[in-house]
From TrEMBL:
<dbReference type="GO" id="GO:0016887">
    <property type="term" value="F:ATP hydrolysis activity"/>
</dbReference>
<dbReference type="InterPro" id="IPR003593">
    <property type="entry name" value="AAA+_ATPase"/>
</dbReference>
<dbReference type="InterPro" id="IPR050763">
    <property type="entry name" value="ABC_transporter_ATP-binding"/>
</dbReference>
<keyword id="KW-0813">Transport</keyword>
<keyword id="KW-0067">ATP-binding</keyword>
<dbReference type="GO" id="GO:0046677">
    <property type="term" value="P:response to antibiotic"/>
</dbReference>
<dbReference type="InterPro" id="IPR017871">
    <property type="entry name" value="ABC_transporter-like_CS"/>
</dbReference>
<feature type="domain" description="ABC transporter">
    <location>
        <begin position="6"/>
        <end position="230"/>
    </location>
</feature>
<keyword id="KW-0046">Antibiotic resistance</keyword>
<dbReference type="GO" id="GO:0005524">
    <property type="term" value="F:ATP binding"/>
</dbReference>
<protein>
    <submittedName>
        <fullName>ABC-2 type transport system ATP-binding protein</fullName>
    </submittedName>
</protein>
<comment type="similarity">
    <text>Belongs to the ABC transporter superfamily.</text>
</comment>
<dbReference type="GO" id="GO:0005886">
    <property type="term" value="C:plasma membrane"/>
</dbReference>
<dbReference type="Pfam" id="PF00005">
    <property type="entry name" value="ABC_tran"/>
</dbReference>
<dbReference type="InterPro" id="IPR003439">
    <property type="entry name" value="ABC_transporter-like_ATP-bd"/>
</dbReference>
<keyword id="KW-0547">Nucleotide-binding</keyword>
<dbReference type="InterPro" id="IPR027417">
    <property type="entry name" value="P-loop_NTPase"/>
</dbReference>
Length: 301
């Protein structure tokens, strides 16, 4: 197994009496894309800012490339950051922006290569203020990867972009990861995590409520059985196992379960015994979004 690039152990961060991060542990190994997901205010940005060395922990330990990210030996040159707010100058062209950054970056790629890497060769002479939101995000990523970092922090890289630009930026992150870069990603777009990340941790109220490989997290309720009950029929007694969850919205019933085929079978049996017909039976793999909503609901109730 490859070396951990990030190690987080029992991390806590308090702001006065409020605990924003409450005993979080995870690690990220070399070459993997790890997604930190969670509800608003869950503690994702606080965690990532501690890993970037901008904030110090109240308790616990954090190591990036084996070093304290806020310490004297912090491995800054090995880390690329794409923050939620970028600080680009509108009057500079894309090439001028990269050139300016090259002066402060050790071992910077040549400007043309940095632009080509993110697919901006055609916009080299375009002023930042004339660039689209997606192009600016790509330029942010070009700057973050200019010094060929081994680790890239991406804090909500596609928030605020239209769907097409989101796809382009997503493809770019996928390509960087395929090239061997380790990536820690926070995002509100679960399909983005599902597409890019090998492992995920889902945070809620400062804690990690579940983490693992995408298939392990999805495996919590890996199957989804949906169907409609006829009007006036109560869902009472539906075959829902202890680890399954049932959501009823009007006549629509959804069961998240690890064993969708057997649950679907039992639902049909349940209906037959009662002499009713369920319609629109749909059995498939649950999406991360469905699992996430299920977990968020479980945690808040
Ligand atoms: N400097 C601060 N002082 C007091 N509370 C803070 C401070 N910074 C963050 N918080 C609180 O800590 C909690 C976690 O915030 P954080 O920004 O880490 O969440 P997040 O998961 O990134 O949320 P979002 O998805 O909304 O960006 C929030 O309740 C926030 O209000």
């Amino acid at each position: 197994m490859s070396e951990p690039v990030i190690e987080v152990s029992e991390l806590r961060k308090r702001y006065g009496r409020f605990t924003a991060v409450d005993g979080v542990s995870f690690d990220v190994r070399e070459g993997e894309v790890f997604a930190l997901l969670g509800t608003n205010g869950a503690g994702k940005t606080t965690t990532i800012e501690i890993l970037e060395g901008y904030l110090t922990p109240s308790e616990g330990t954090v190591r990036v490339f084996g070093q304290d990210p806020a310490g004297r030996h912090a491995p800054r040159s090995r880390i690329g950051l794409v923050l939620q707010e970028s600080g680009l100058f509108g009057d500079l062209s894309a090439a001028e922006t990269v050139t300016a950054w090259s002066r402060f970056t050790t071992g910077a790629r040549p400007v043309a290569e940095a632009l080509a890497l993110v697919g901006l060769s055609g916009q080299a002479g375009t002023r930042v203020k004339r660039m689209s939101g997606g192009e600016r995000r790509k330029l942010d990523i070009a700057l973050a990867t200019l010094g060929r970092p081994g680790l890239l922090f991406l804090d909500e890289p596609t928030t605020g972009l239209d769907p097409e630009a989101r796809h382009r930026v997503r493809d770019l992150v996928g390509e960087l990861a395929a090239g061997g870069m380790t990536v820690l990603l926070t995002t509100h777009y679960l399909e983005e995590a599902q597409e890019l990340a090998g492992r995920v941790a889902i945070m809620d109220k400062g804690r990690i409520v579940t983490q693992g490989t995408m298939s392990e997290v999805l495996g919590r309720g890996s199957g989804r059985v949906a169907f409609e009950l006829p009007g006036g029929v109560s869902p009472e007694g539906l075959p829902v196992g202890e680890r399954d969850t049932l959501t009823v919205t009007g006549r629509q019933c959804v069961i998240l379960t690890a064993e969708p085929e057997s649950v679907a079978h039992s639902v049909l049996g349940w209906a037959q015994v009662r002499g009713v017909r369920v319609s629109g039976l749909d059995v498939r793999q649950a999406t991360l979004e469905e699992v996430f909503l299920d977990i968020a609901q479980e945690v808040t109730t």
